[in-house]
Amino acid sequence: DLLRLCLEVNVVGLLSSIRHAVPHMTGGGAIVCTASQAGIEGAPELAAYCASKFAVVGIVQSLARELAAAGIRVNAVAPGLVDTPMLAAFFSERARIRGTSPEEVQRAGLGNVPIGRLADPTEIADAMLFLASDQSSYISGTTMPILGGEISG
Fold it and tell me: Any idea what DSSP says for residue 31?
């Protein structure tokens, strides 16, 4: 079912990856996870996905404290609407359910985004690179919202 799939991919997969990576991070380093806007505020019709992404935020906070002594920083990005095939499929599915077009669903979603457009995936990657770099050496346990000016919460 959808809940199990979300938890397996977004929680079990994340924890498993980190568990395998940490022993190789001798001398410290940075782990950057992918949360979501749905991990910092709930959204209708997305309870399973939200639950899994809220878990990512909790994992980041817990592991930041747990791994700090080893010199490992743990952070996440929380993107909003990003121009990806996953978002296009979401818009299409919501349009089918609502009896409208994917473009209308996208327009409605962007109505809360002051920048007025979808994020490009490279913009999310740039934030991840910052969190992985030495420029963020004092940042750990943080989830960085990347929402085009939308205020969550």
Answer: E
In the numeric block, the tokens 């473009």 are attached to 103
Q: Which of 37, 49, 52, 119 is catalytic?
A: 49
Q: Which pTM was predicted?
A: 0.93
153: burial class by Cβ within 10 Å (0-12, 13-18, 19+)?
A: exposed
Active site (annotated) includes residue 49: yes
List, in sequence order, every residue forming a beta bridge with 79; answer none if it has no partner: 146
Residue with tokens 């199990």: 4
pLDDT of residue 153: 55
- Map tokens 């205020």 to a residue: 151
Res. 152: pLDDT tops 70:
no
pLDDT of residue 49: 96
Residue pair 30/132 in contact (Cβ under 8 Å)? The answer is yes
